[in-house]
Design brief:
Blueprint (H helix, E strand, L loop, with lengths): L2 H11 L2 E4 L7 E4 L1 H4 L2 H18 L7 E5 L3 H12 L2 E7 L7 E8 L2 E8 L8 E9 L3 H12 L3 E10 L13 E6 L1
Parallel strand pairs: 3-4, 3-7, 7-8, 8-9
Antiparallel strand pairs: 1-2, 4-6, 5-6
Helix pairs in contact: 1-3, 3-4
Amino acid sequence: MSASEFYAKEIKSAFKQFTDFPIEGEQFEDFLPIIGNPKLFQKLINAFATHLQEKFVTRKIDFIAGVEARGLLFGPSVALALGVGFVPIRRAGKLPGECATVTFTKLDHEETFEMQVEAIPFDSNVVIMDDVLATGGSAMAAGNLIKQVGAHILEYDFVLTLDSLHGEEKLATPIFSLLHS
């Protein structure tokens, strides 16, 4: 049994569900209670770090890219555990300097993500992290930013994948999800 499988049940039990959020008819899976529990948060970080160390033995990970908002909360900790750099992918207007940008449709509106152009050198290997894979729009947009700067996406990593929404179908790169719902 892998570290991720070992901790998955305990981590899933800490999620809190909100009905009709962010829009009516949606069920929101909130993983923030995990961050409030230092022992459980450490297990979450260990599960991702162990998975990535085992999977990418022969390929070097250069950066973890965390997607706003929740990927910014645990992505840096995973990067630190692996001894690699961390790069934030933020909503428009949050980062200084020259930024790569991508606009995409999310639920019922358009959003724009940005990443500082100089944050990831050309030909770097990147793992993209976020909390939930739903329809795949945010993850695909983050991947497009990584590609714009000439870097390689090794994998998309999520705490939870909502399988019924088939977001993984939009992503050409392999995904890893600690939990499925």
